[in-house]
Specification:
Elements (H helix, E strand, L loop, with lengths): L7 H14 L1 E7 L3 E9 L20 E10 L3 E2 L2 E2 L2 H19 L5 E6 L5 E10 L7 H9 L10 E13 L2 E4 L9 E12 H13 L3 E7 H9 L2 H6 L1 E6 L4 E7 L2 E8 L3 H12 L3 H11 L12 E3 L7 H4 L2 E3 H25 L9 E5 L8 H9 L3 E3 L18 H11 L20 H11 L1
Parallel strand pairs: 1-6, 6-11, 12-17, 17-18
Antiparallel strand pairs: 1-2, 2-3, 4-5, 7-10, 8-9, 8-10, 12-13, 13-14, 15-16
Length: 444
Amino acid sequence: MADLYQSQRAMRQMRRLAMQRGVVAILDVGSSKIACLILRFDGPDRLGEDGSVGSLAGQSGFRVIGANTTRSRGVQFGEISAMQETERAIRTAVQGAQKMAAVRVDHVIACFSGAHPRSYGLNAQVDLEGQEVTENEVARVLAACEVPEYGGDREVLHAQPINFALDHRSGLSDPRGQIGHALEVDMHMLTVDAPIVQNLVHCIKRCDLELAGIASSAYASGFSALVEDEQELGAACIDMGGGSTSISVFMKKHMIYADAVRMGGDHITSDISMGLSVPTANAERIKTFCGGVQATGADDRDMIDIGGDTGDWEHDRRTVSRAELIGIMRPRVEEILEEVRARLDAAGFEHLPSQQIVLTGGSSQIMGLDGLATRILGHQVRLGRPLRVHGLPQSATGPSFASSVGLCLLAAHPQDEWWDFEMPVDKHTRGTFRRAVRWFKENW
């Protein structure tokens, strides 16, 4: 494992090196498209004390100077299924963005949507005896978290403290410098299938690129599509992509749950292709321009020209009613949303102070989806698009770019790196969070 992965600190050093050069690429490896954005970080002092750039509320600290997308090949359910095809697609996306930016990039930060994400909530408490909270005490309480056995073929992708409590004063984001008797922490840990991530890391290396960070697209999408109040009070982001639908739940501006449904827009397209006996490309066009999930009284009379594939327009001339198209699309969309509801119920979503749901991703643009989602999910649903990044090219401002833009924000404001403390050594402590963090440091 260590041979295939760079260490977490080496990757962090790669990111710092990219910041010093002022340029880094963002790579979103999806099932329907591979997107590459190239960021230029402004100003001579690009890195703050915490390794972040700029501020979320004001200037983001970077500009998008290159963007390119290409049709994804060799990726299914957000996971690589054909290495060479994916490598060619990544090279195409990166080279196009480099050409637009007129600059060469060596470092990329990548996100992906597959690998069967699984969330864990961890908790621990340590006695302080009236001392000031320093990095050592924070490290002690992080190391005291009991980690469940998550399996030898799975590894930690994200690990974050989401809440600190000091002497029953909860809701602290950073307890350092305060004095108390008991320090408590609530952690969120996300694990993924290791071989799937290994394949992505290996594919990026084959493209002669250095990996400077990696993230779950569910995390990145929520980071860009949710407004700050939603992230603070509790909200879910549903990113409906081509091969999978990612789910992330945020609270106190941290992700507290993530999961994925292995169905997306490509499955709806496939249903249309089979139901109407048309090629996949035609089915995608019909879905995009004519599709919907909410029937109206006019749908029986609204006829759609679906054509054929012989090239003879008179011979191929075929039409279907919009009602028939909706009848094909709606069952699959309902199936996806029912799966999403089951995952949100398992996460205890109804117990959050706020239960806003934001739909994003390319497939969220299906006509009438927000109304159907509100009925099935039982909560208020709005359609979301990337926020808080200015200067994006028009082509990269739509819902399908939520994860790409979120990854830009995470590149400038990394959250996983804020708590990189040396864990205390205790021979008697077994199964603690130190094991997960040690892997996190050594193998990323």
